[in-house]
Amino acid sequence: MTMVGYALELAQAALALLLAPGLVGLVRWLKARLQNRRGAPVWQPYWELAKLFQKEVVVSSNASWLFRVAPFVVFASTVAVTFLVPILAVPLPFDGVGDLLVVVYLLLLGTFFLSLAGLDPGSPFGGMGASREMTVAALAEPTVALAIFALALSAGSTNLGQIVARTMADPAAAVSPGHLLAFGALFIVTLAETGRLPIDNPATHLELTMIHEAMILEYSGRYLALIEWAAALKLLIFFSLLGNLFVPWGVSVVLTPAALAVAVVSLLAKLVVLAGVVAVLETRIAKLRLFRVPELLSVSFVLALLAVTSSFLLR
Amino acid sequence: MTLADFLVTILLGAYPIGVAAALGARGALGRGLVAGCGLAGALAGLGLGAVCLGTGIVPTVSTSLLPLTGFALRVDGLSAFFLIVVGVVGAAATVYGFGYSAAYEGRYSLRLLGAMLNVLLLSLSVQVMADNALTFLMAWEAMSLSAYAMVLTEHDRPGTVRAAHWYIAVTHAGFAALLAMFLLLSAGDLTTSFAGMRSASLTSGTRDAVFALALLGFGTKAGIAPLHVWLPMAHPVAPSHVSALMSGVVIKMGVYGLLRVTIDLLVGGPPWWGGLVLGVGTVSALLGVLYALMEHDLKRLLAYHSVENIGIIFIGIGAGLMFQSFGLPTLAALGIVAGMYHTINHACFKGLLFLGAGSVLHAVGTRNMEEMGGLIKRMPRTACFFLLGACAISGLPPLNGFASEWLVFQALLGGSAIPQPEVAVVMPIAVAMLALTSGLAAACFVKAFGITFLAIPRSLRAEQAHEVPWSMQAGMATLAVACVALGLAPFAVVPLLASSLAGLPGVAPPAMEFTLALPLQVPGASGQMSPLLLASGLVLLLALVPFALRILGADRRLRVGDTWGCGRIGQTPRMEYTATAFAEPLRRVFAELYRPTRDLSIDFHPDSKYFVQSIEYRSEIHPWIERVLYDWPLQGLHRAALWVRRLQGGSLHLYLFYLTLAFLILLAAARWWR
Amino acid sequence: MDSVFSQLCVLGSSLVLLFGLILLWRRGVSAYISAFAWQSIVLSGVTVVVAYFGNDHELYWVAACLLLLKGLVIPRLLRRMARRFAAERELEPYVNTATSLVVSGLLVLFGYAITRPLVALSQLPTRAGMPLAMGLILVSLFVVISRKKALTQVVGFLMLENGLALLAVLGTYGIPLIVELGVFLDVLMGFLVMQIFIYQIHETFESIDVEQLNRLRH
């Protein structure tokens, strides 16, 4: 574990933190353009974060210390995940610290505390958001686990670096039915976990249609900034996972400046492509009723199950 | 006298002293002596287990004193591990019980409670050390009866007597199965040592019968579906430290028995054994968590979660058994170690949660979550401990629940090594069900912790709650520390567990040395992780972020105001989310399973149907397993009993006539029948 | 010598049995109690005879206990109870007097049939009395099941104990002293318990007709 390795990890995390708000801004801008609007510029979320950091925090008198600690827990767990996910290079020095299962459960840790923070002020909207969020998170779990199983089967390990390396070594595996089905399943899970249409509308003003927004309704100032940043970071993490696990070319295997530059460019390209796909989807599809969401998640579950069985049979 | 012998003496001696103290001394002295003796015994057991696992010695005890001839004890690796489980939870529960049972002074029999507590701990310790069927069965009976007596402590509350009846009936049905099983294993002589049973050669039909009886008997004690119906009845009504012991340790005796019989005495079997255990585990896990979600009685919610976690343990053990039957010893060891790791983890965090629920019950006076709230400000330390337990049971890193679930996942992921694909496909299904279970458990504990502790109190009693005495806090703190330690150090725990399996002939655990290598690398697992580094990283980030914000010049003002609630004025407890409301989306999703009944009655104004005077809505969920599998045979039994009742004329003379008639017949038979 | 011994024993056993039959013939409770007292005295006499001829000194103690307990103490307690309950008479038993006596005769015959192997096997001079003791046991059982008043049933139970003691004395020259003492204690305890029961029955039903207990059902 060399100094270069540590520097790589830090650079990766810093890059992720920097790019995340921009990614959200990109999706919004693309949606606006598709809806024939001008839209705010792509770097609008940066200004919003800066503004939030300058504002005073108002905390409910009913809330407890959990309300004040939760944003930090969410942010810390999401940033911790950026250290474990191969964004720029493999093998990651921290590969032994956590594998794909650890990543999934770290994100669940953030969701857990955010839901608790939604219940803390005692407002019914917070409770509603928390209840819906945990429902969606719980129902998305089996899909994620099966997708991990499918990937780990072909790679022989649940460690992310190994999965990426294996796919890079064997390009034919990338278009195997197992991989494609797992990609589809994970894409639906991405939409669910990051709160995008058709599961949740990140731009809605109507409380009864909110999931994520309803949980954070009582937050303001720097706390809200941290939570919004963590949400954007989660979007970036999921996009990097989708990109780098299934289409790993571009991820550098040697730590030379040229390879890293290629890695950054390919990452940006993948992010832009995925942002475009999501923007198109969000423009075309309406939000599902909450009680239709389990149907969608069961579709993703079936895709993941098919992914696993095909991996089994085509070994 | 070696250290091990010394510890055995203390272990076997402290508890009877505790019984005597309970029956003799009164008041705080009595409670203190009971707790002290229980603590001494538990710590002795813990020490003995640690010494045996660490040094590999196998102490044996046998005696020929008159009432105890035929008793034989032997502490091998598996026994040592379970002694540690008993010791950890026992120590915490006895300390907690000192403060908790003060509330029973004058209302219920503290002497019976204290005496039975020590009897329970003694019988648990003797049972895991038992070396022949006689000792095992006697200790099993003593355990069941003492637990039954303690379940009945609060006998005037509604539901307690019924719960105790179910408990004793199901546990004795299990005992009958176990008796039959041991008679088969030992060919009739119950004092055959386990070594003798191991070397006996049985036909494969007998082995299958033994396995089925073992699963039945130990399953009733462990609480797997569909034999679990007594668990959500009995665990809530017992005193809370007893609930912690029952959920944390007593149901693990079912796990111990199953492990002892299948991998030790039977030395493995055909794949359908492992498949059955795996299937039963999966069903229990899902059923347990789904019914837990719908509960608003805090302790019954925790009891259903015990069913779920036993299911997870059985998933690990079932996977291990399947690998063993296919001749994959490393993976078999991985599965069994994963199951055992989850055993001790569940004992710790479930014990912690029950002690926390007991503290809440002690402070608020009710188990109903819908009447709680705002306790985090009134009982801050209890809330912290409960939050830790909730995070642990939801499987959040870096705590112990995550470590063992990770290990179970790794064991299941090894299923690709099984040569027959149609058999191997059960593994991914189990993976999916396990993931669903852990997600639902997280949802359930957001509900449990959130509704109980957060927001505003929903009743007067919750408003007046106060923190619990130091002994109860000490009990909870012990288990909390254990949870954290077990979670951060799997690299230390897993080699110990592997070494506990070393003596058993059926599995070949890899010789994992106790290294301080931080990542957990288990042979057979397809990944690695290091919770210690993870935890340090998280703590570092948690500290760095505020620091960074301060440097970057973020605004530091904070003002306390009303809840915004989208501009609504005023916040009353009635506006808060309730537990039932929280679980409602999941209730709808799984409505086919729950089949809730719905009762809606609307009173209209007599003059017009457009004006409503009152609406009454009632919806209940009755577990359908009870309805289908239990009510129907029980009704048949009841009808048969009514028919037999006709013999009961109510006349004393009739009964005396029966007696005399029987006597005469007996005499005649003795005289004339050859 | 032996023939005197066995004749005395047979005489004593017959007397004991006859006193038992009084329970089936007379109607008044005081008659029953007197019969029981005399029966116990005769029984202790038989025990003394066996002790003398059989050279077993422990039996002297047994006889003394019998006399004291069953000859004096228990009849006194019984009379006290009878006084308290206004000496109800056994007016309508389940089986009337004539039939009862016939049945008791049949039971004594049955007792003879049952104990024939015992008599054939035994070498003791006392063996001739054993069928009579068995007969007493069976007759006492019959009394218990066919009589309605609780006091009668208690006396029947005590006579059953007498029959068993007689059987033990005749069959094996008594049972070990410690067991004998235990049996005495049991009888005393049983008697006290039955006393309490009878008081309770009287409290609840204002009579000691045991058939009233049927009303407790449901």
Order of helices and strands of chain A: HHEHHHHHHHHHH
Note the beta-strand portion of chain A: under 5%
E-strand count of chain A: 1
Major interchain interface with per-chain residue totals: A-B, 87 and 83 residues
Rg of chain C, nearest Å: 18 Å
Shape descriptor of chain A reads globular
Mean of all residue-level pLDDT scores of chain A: 88
- Proportion of residues in β-strands of chain C: under 5%
Please state the structural category of chain C. Answer: mainly alpha
Distance between the termini of chain A: 34 Å
Overall number of structural domains of chain A: 1
SSE string of chain C, helices as H and strands as E: HHHHHHH
Could you explain the architecture of this structure?
- The complex is a heterotrimer of chains A (315), B (674) and C (218).
- With 315 residues, chain A is mainly α.
- Helices cover 71% and strands 1% of the residues of chain A.
- In chain A, 63% of the residues are buried.
- Chain B has helices spanning 3-24, 27-55, 77-100, 110-129, 133-151, 160-185, 194-199, 204-222, 231-237, 240-250, 252-265, 271-293, 298-325, 329-364, 375-378, 380-393, 400-413, 421-424, 426-453, 460-463, 470-488, 490-500, 531-551, 579-589, 591-594, 624-644, 652-672, and strands at 60-62, 72-74, 558-561, 597-604, 612-620.
- In chain B, the strands form 2 sheets. In chain B, strands 1-2 form a two-stranded antiparallel ribbon. Chain B has a two-stranded antiparallel ribbon with strand order 4-5.
- In chain B, a hairpin with a 7-residue loop joins strand 4 and strand 5 (612-620).
- Chain C is globular and about 55 Å long.
- Chain C has one domain (2-87, 96-216).
- Chain C is mainly α and 218 residues long.
- In chain C, helix 1 runs antiparallel to helix 2, helix 1 packs antiparallel against helix 6 and helix 6 runs antiparallel to helix 7.
- The interface between B and C is medium-sized, with 16 and 19 residues.
